[in-house]
Amino acid sequence: MVKTRFAPSPTGFLHVGGLRTALFSYLFAKHHGGKFLLRIEDTDRERLVDGGIENILKSLRWAGIKPDEGIDLDESGKVIQTGKNGPYIQSERLKIYHKHVDRLIKDDHAYYCFCSKERLAELRQIQEANKQATGYDGLCREMPLAEAKKRVTAGESHVIRMKMPKTGITKFTDLVRGDVEFKNELIDDQVILKADRFPTYHLAVVVDDHLMEITHVIRAEEWLPSTPKHIELYKMFGWKPPEFAHLSLLVNEQKQKLSKRHGDVAVRDFIDKGYLPEAMVNFIAFLGWNPGDEREMFDLDSLIKEFDFAKISKAAGVFNLEKLDWFNREYLKKMPSAELIKICLPMFRDRRYEIGDNDWLGKVLSLEKKRVTTLVELVESIKFVFEDTPYEAQILVWKKSSKEETKNVLEKLVNCLNKISVQDWTKTGMESRVGGWMKENEFGTGNVLWPMRVALSGQKNSPGPFEIAEVLGKEETIERLRMAIKKLE
Predict the structure, then answer these.
(1) Is the pLDDT of residue 66 over 80?
(2) Is it the case that residue 262 has pLDDT exceeding 60?
(3) Residue among 135, 92, 370 nearest 229 (CA)
(4) Region 152-178 average pLDDT
(5) Angle of helix 474-488 versus helix 403-418 axis, rounded to 10
(6) Whole-number percent of the chain with pLDDT over 70
């Protein structure tokens, strides 16, 4: 059975690149009827961020990516672990790693290293000055084990390194990049257990992926040079390596690696700005993958059905914000009213708006639903319905008209609207009655509808006046028109 995993470090909020890795891992597993596991790699103790695990889990859940095994959130929002291969948080697995390191030392596949940070820094400087490849020079590699253990017993600070073969070639077939090979002589002896007794990524990822029965490792391109080290560790343990797929980097439109210096990169940033999960997932899926035809709109189920590594590109994925905005507008336009109301309600409550029933709220949202990009923009764009919007009297005046003429038109418009019954107070009903009245009195469209729209919205750019009037209701509409008349006096 196919089994993939996503194993983020809680050293910050989930990056959009991490979301893509999780999404592709999830899609591949589900496409093959397999399972998706979520593990937390928290061995870098100095960079841990409070709430990092919860943020990762909430961001994945927002995107519709739910693990079958590993770390998850319960109904109360508490972090839980489910499955037979736990613990799924690496800091809770130290005894497992120590056991496997001891095995490597016993089998002469690893050794104690007592080199100080100062010596390693000096070594690096010399290598760089001589234009040599940087890496550990193997000073402690041939130290007799008895001597090394004596120094350990004496309390001397040390790390443990793997014994990378110094001859030959490590080969593997990457699901994205095809056949890849590395000369072993160019790869240094990687630290696998740090002085603080925590494993490095390289040891922990191999042990965990094997014990958790991972069949396919899908990760970022930056881990490609580490793969031969991992494959050699699998060989040292006598285990079969999983298949590997290394995804290309994500870059911005300037072809720079995505980073906080260049704008938003955390999934949370996009959630807070009001992007829809459906749009983000659809957009992220196309950062390196495409279906091979002109189709662009895919929900999660469609992506699962279509996903195939044969359609993944080796080229860097360009995070084009304009394209994300396009996806979000398309999904926003098509979103059912009831669903949109449910999403927006907390935002209305945060602003302490007085809201009516769902039918009315649906009409309010429909005023701007097709004109905005994000949920935040949507709620902001319709705030004129709930609160007074200050505006200057001059913007009520249509082109070559005057304040006096505009005041006169609005006074007559109020009389016209007063004659419309509450039952006929609909967009269609008002268009018919006011349209007939305008024709009868030979009023120009702009001379009536422009000041009416500005009076009701307080804005130069807004939905049509009859749509706004229907939402505001007869009493509020006439009150706002009368306020506009006062401004023109």
Answers:
(1) yes
(2) no
(3) 135
(4) 96
(5) 160
(6) 99
Give the closest residue to 417 by CA, choosing from 340, 488, 483, 477.
Answer: 477
Contacts of 8 (CB under 8 A, 6+ apart): 14, 18, 22, 40, 41, 56
Tell me which residues are annotated as active site: 260
Strand pairing class (69-73; 159-162): unpaired
Q: Are 258 and 16 in contact (CB under 8 A)?
A: yes
**pLDDT-based confidence at 458, cuts 50/70/90?**
very high
Run of H or E including 157: none
Decide if 143 contacts 195 (C-beta within 8 A).
Answer: no
Strand partners, 72: 80
| Rounded distance between C-alpha atoms, residue 327 and residue 333, angstroms | 10
Which phi and psi angles does 40 have, rounded to 5°?
-110, 125
Strand-pairing partners, residue 193, are 160, 199
| Mean pLDDT taken over the chain | 94
85-133 confidence digits (pLDDT tens): 999 999 999 999 999 999 999 999 999 999 999 999 999 999 999 988 8
In which order are the strands placed within the sheet that holds 191-193?
110-113, 159-162, 191-193
Task: For tokens 């495409």, name the residue.
Answer: 290
Q: Which of 9, 14, 27, 20 is nearest to 247 (CA)?
A: 20
- What's the confidence (pLDDT) of residue 45? 80
At residue 43, the pLDDT reads 85
- Tell me if 20 sits within 8 A of 250, measured CB to CB: yes
How high is the pLDDT of residue 354?
Answer: 84
2, 57, 83, 242 alpha-carbon torsion, rounded to 10°: 30
Judge whether 147 is annotated as a binding position: no
**Which residue in the block uniquely carries the two structure tokens 């009701």?**
456
Torsion over CA: 251, 254, 260, 264 (sign): negative
Residue 392 labeled ligand binder: no
Is 115 labelled a binding residue?
A: yes
Q: How far apart are CA 182 and CA 201, in angstroms?
A: 20
Tell me: is residue 416 an annotated ligand-binding position: no
140 is in an annotated binding site: yes
Sign of the dihedral defined by the CA atoms of residues 126, 128, 130, 134, in that order: positive
267-298: per-residue pLDDT in tens? Answer: 999 999 999 999 999 999 999 999 989 999 99
Cis (ω within 30 of 0) for the bond into 87? yes
pLDDT tens, 294-323? 999 999 999 999 999 999 999 999 999 999
CA distances from 433 to 96, 270, 413, 466 (A): 80, 44, 11, 11
